[in-house]
Amino acid sequence: MVISRKPSHFIVAALLAFMPLLSFANDNHGAHTQTTASQEATTAMGKGHEGDHSSEGDQTLTEEEKKVKEREEFIQHHLLDSHDFTLFSYGNGHHVGFSLPVILWDNGLHIFSSSKFEHETAVAESNGNFYKIVHGQIFKTDAKGTIEYEGHHPTNKKPLDLSITKNVFMILVVAFLMFVLFRSLANSYKKNNGIASGVGRFFEPIILFIRDDIAIPNIGEKHYKKYMSHLLTVFFFIWFLNMFGLTPLGVNVTNNIAITAALAILTYLITTFTANKNYWGHIFWMPGVPVPMKIILAPIELLGTLIKPFSLTVRLYANMLAGHVVLMSIIAMMYTFNNMIGSSLSFVLAFALSILEVLVAGLQAYIFTMLTALYFGAAKEEHHHDDHH
Amino acid sequence: MEQLLGQFSLGLFILQAVIFVGLVLLLKKFAWKPILDAVNEREEGIKNALQSAEQARQEMANLKSDNEKLLADARAERDTLLKEAREIKEKMINDAKADAQAQGEKMIAQAKAAIEGEKNAAMAELKSQVSALSLEIAEKLLRDELSNKEAQSKLVEKMLGDSKLN
């Protein structure tokens, strides 16, 4: 596997890419602290999903244990998608943020504002149907908001939820940002006699890096052009969303498995539909091995094609999720320690980790793009490969 | 795993896929294609410029070597011309000398031949005169002999004396 023929290019590009964003990491840190602090100040977060099943246990816990549990729930809640954009909460159920539209398909279209849920606490009514949010997901319920549980999981019917959730909102923001950014870069070439100007000067080397060190070595000079749009979009999309995840806005798009799965499945579909004869030949009738081996290899190879996008999905999802969990846990530890040495130590640790996360944000985008290009390359590999068997 | 699947939102998945595909197509038309085209064009331009610069350099070098060659040729030609001129000059001198010598020798030979001819003619005349004289003397002697012996001898002596004078 060719990761990079010019490692120095990559290192320089990576360093340049992350330098201006270091300040973000610091902000992020402070803001998380702020968010956690506001949570610390209050005992009730007004979170609906804490619900009936968790409140009864709370009475037996001490004050300290309650706080720890609360932080734990805050982190878990942060990692979920939500139907309104909450920047932070304070006091007794005060939320700073804005509502987003809810769009449901449940034997007809239901569109209403997420403010109807009153931050996941109330039952929303739309055209005679009642809905309630449990753990960030909308369930169909009755006027009283009855939710039936089986273990921890509600068994109520789930309507198809096409709402503009926080994640969808951020996807749209990033899509808009990318469009404006790269459109202006494309226009600057015309205006400036073939030389990028403005912010495009920063992104142009990255585009060239993706072309020269990811696409061409993996796919080959002949076919790479066809895949460039997808590779560039995937890279910047993941990178920007990862970076947004490190801002104090509480964005967590790339650590949602639905997002990474959608990206990986697109990679799989493009690989499958653009594959040449040689690719399928290698899967169903591996050349250069005895016939019994060919029969054994066929299902393994076929399974391999499915495992590839699955590994893409899980790699990005798990990396970003773990980063968020660890970072927030360390920030929460500051309050758990609640003394000079322990708290300052976890502050330093959180700071160092934030910087690492900035690196991971770029690296994961790079790895996803790299592997996508590699799979595209396998689909387009020419026949000469057979000679090596 | 159960929690993972529980969190999976089909709606988000669909929206993400739709928005992403839309974004890819939109960016392809409005951003990636113009950007990559512009970059390619620029790279081609740079490559061409470098190539033509290299070509110009090569041409300059060729021109320079051509000039030097021309100069060297001119110098060599001048040298050969000078050499030829010198050779011609020497040849001319030598030829002139040889000619003059040949002419002189020829003139001398002619003079010699003329002198020889004159001498032979003189000798022949002398011989004829001597023989005529001798015949005359002999005639006279024979006449005298017939008249006077004494006078004959005297005459002979006188004749001889005359011939001595001659």
Topology:
The complex is a heterodimer of chains A (389) and B (166).
Chain A: H1 7-18, H2 22-41, H3 51-58, H4 63-79, E1 84-90, E2 94-99, E3 101-105, E4 109-113, E5 124-126, E6 129-134, E7 137-141, E8 149-150, E9 153-154, E10 160-161, H5 166-191, H6 200-219, H7 224-246, H8 257-274, H9 277-284, H10 291-337, H11 340-379
Antiparallel strand pairs in A: 1-2, 3-4, 3-10, 5-6, 6-7, 8-9
Chain B: H1 2-7, H2 10-147, H3 149-165
Helix pairs in contact in B: 2-3
Membrane topology (chain A): Multi-pass membrane protein
Main location (chain A): membrane
GO molecular function (chain A): proton-transporting ATP synthase activity, rotational mechanism
What's a quick, concise take on this entry?
Chain A: Belongs to the ATPase A chain family. The complex is a heterodimer of chains A (389) and B (166). Chain A has 389 residues and is mainly alpha-helical.
Can you tell me about this structure?
The complex is a heterodimer of chains A (389) and B (166). Chain A is 61% helix and 11% strand. With 389 residues, chain A is mainly α. The longest helix of chain A has 47 residues, at 291-337. Residues 20-58 and 385-389 of chain A have low confidence and may be disordered. Chain B has a domain at 30-135. In chain B, 97% of the residues lie in helices and 0% in strands. Chain B has helices spanning 2-7, 10-147, 149-165. Chain B is rod-shaped. The mean pLDDT of chain B is 88. The interface between A and B is large, with 47 and 36 residues.
Which terms summarize this structure?
heterodimer, A: 389 residues, mainly alpha, 2 domains, 3-stranded antiparallel beta sheet, 11 helices, 10 strands, 11% strand, globular, disordered C terminus, B: 166 residues, 3 helices, 0% strand
The two chains with the largest interface, and their residue counts, are: A-B, 47 and 36 residues
Number of helices of chain B: 3
User: Which range does the strand content of chain B fall in?
Assistant: under 5%
In whole angstroms, the N-to-C terminal distance of chain A is 17 Å
Task: Count the domains of chain A.
Answer: 2
- Taking the alpha carbons of the first and last residues of chain B, their distance comes to 173 Å
Structural class of chain B: mainly alpha
Helix content of chain B: over 70%
